[in-house]
Design brief:
Elements (H helix, E strand, L loop, with lengths): L1 E4 L8 E4 L10 E9 L2 H7 L16 E8 L11 E3 L10 H4 L23 E4 L2 H4 L1 E2 L6 H6 L3 H12 L7 E5 L3 H12 L3 E6 L2 H9 L4 E4 L5 H11 L4 E6 L4 H9 L1 E9 L11 H6 L3 E4 L9 H8 L9 E5 L4 H9 L7 E5 L2
Parallel strand pairs: 8-9, 8-11, 9-10, 11-12, 12-13, 14-15
Antiparallel strand pairs: 1-2, 3-4, 3-6, 3-15, 4-5, 5-7
Protein name: Alcohol dehydrogenase
Family: Belongs to the zinc-containing alcohol dehydrogenase family.
InterPro entries: ADH-like_C, ADH-like_N, ADH_Zn_CS, ER, GroES-like_sf, NAD(P)-bd_dom_sf, Zn_alcohol_dh
């Protein structure tokens, strides 16, 4: 198969021919149709994930058709069009049996624990537990994005923070996952406020129905909080921090109304300090979101099928496999291109 591979962290990835993967007993091999270019893949390439063994093929958001099936797989067959959560659960441990496969201690992650989807073929494990059928009518880019950023944002907003129609939602950071959260908030009937330093990212947020956009470039914390208060005088009920920076995490917490709920999606390179006095005195709650188990995807898929949620509208660039190495390196260097990039492999 052709695949994007790197032999050393931060060394330029390249496309080369690699051995085809074979399915595990309970797994499958999928022929990749489209895969997402995600900042988490860039973090891995930079060496921030100690589970990655070199040489390595990145990629964890994908859609494709099953190419080969292991002998223990019962629910799926060759030719089925599928996607998968980026956290693949074992289906046997206590967490999985309780419905919490996204925190399975035995989890596998394509593009992290083993070779991923920046390739013509990718192996996925415990297929009966993790694979999600994809309608033929669904855009391949939209289907791929359901594996990570949309699933993580949806679980965080709906299953963790319990966002309701009519509530005010603050999204801090309008990259791929932040825009996904904003789009979900709009689809659920929330009044969405978006904060970013990039005018083009804020314009993209406005184009998907965000009610208020705030350009925070050059503003200190107090000034940004004042702008948020103008948009939401009674405070916001739910906030999302999508950048992984201590300053923006503080901002999203301090903007919350009493009893507010923060969803933490941004990943930190070092452990941040929390404004604990505010959290305690206002009884704020902080929720992590680490993807979503396949068994919980029905609500998200129904929202997409209804037309209320259109992940494909966030796609700004569609590139081929040969363009992926440069795009990954650019993302790791801090490229802030608006919208989302997907890699069409097939």
């Amino acid at each position: 198969m052709r695949a994007v591979v790197y032999d050393q962290f931060t060394a330029e990835p390249e496309v080369r021919d690699l051995p085809d993967p074979v399915p595990s007993d309970a797994g499958v091999v999928v022929r990749v149709e489209t895969t997402g270019l995600c900042r988490s893949d860039a973090h891995g390439w930079l060496g921030h994930d100690d589970g990655i063994a070199l040489p390595h093929v990145p990629g964890h958001e994908l859609v494709g058709r099953i190419h080969a099936v292991g002998p223990a797989v019962e629910r799926f067959r060759v030719g089925d069009r599928v996607t998968v959560p980026f956290v693949c659960a074992c289906g046997r441990c206590a967490q999985c049996l309780a419905g919490n496969g996204q925190v399975c201690p035995n989890q596998t992650q394509p593009g992290f624990t083993h070779w991923g989807s920046y390739a013509e073929l990718v192996a996925l494990h415990d297929a009966d537990v993790n694979l999600i059928p994809v309608p033929e009518s669904l855009d391949a880019g939209a289907a791929a994005l359901l594996g990570c950023r949309f699933a993580t944002a949806f679980r965080g907003l709906v299953h963790r923070a319990g966002l309701r129609s009519g509530e005010r939602l603050l999204v801090v950071g309008c990259g791929g996952v932040g825009l996904s959260a904003a789009m979900i908030g709009v689809a659920l009937g929330a009044e969405v406020i978006a904060v970013d330093i990039d005018a083009s990212a804020l314009a993209r947020a406005a184009s998907i129905g965000v009610t208020h956009t705030i350009d925070s470039s050059g503003l200190d914390e107090a000034a940004v909080l004042a702008r948020i208060a103008e948009a939401a005088p009674a405070g916001v009920q739910v906030s999302v921090e999508a950048l992984g920076r201590e300053s923006t995490m503080r901002l999203s917490l301090l903007a919350l109304a009493p009893m507010g709920r923060q969803v933490q999606i941004g990943l930190f390179s070092s452990e941040p300090t929390l404004p604990l006095p505010r959290i305690i005195s206002q009884e704020l709650s902080l929720h992590g979101s680490h993807g979503m188990p396949a068994s919980d995807y029905s609500e998200l898929l129904d929202l997409v099928a209804s037309g209320a949620l259109r992940p494909q509208d966030l796609i700004e660039h569609r590139i081929g496999l040969d363009q992926a190495p440069a795009a990954l390196a650019a993302l790791a260097s801090g490229d802030r291109s608006t919208g989302v990039t997907v890699i069409d492999v097939a």
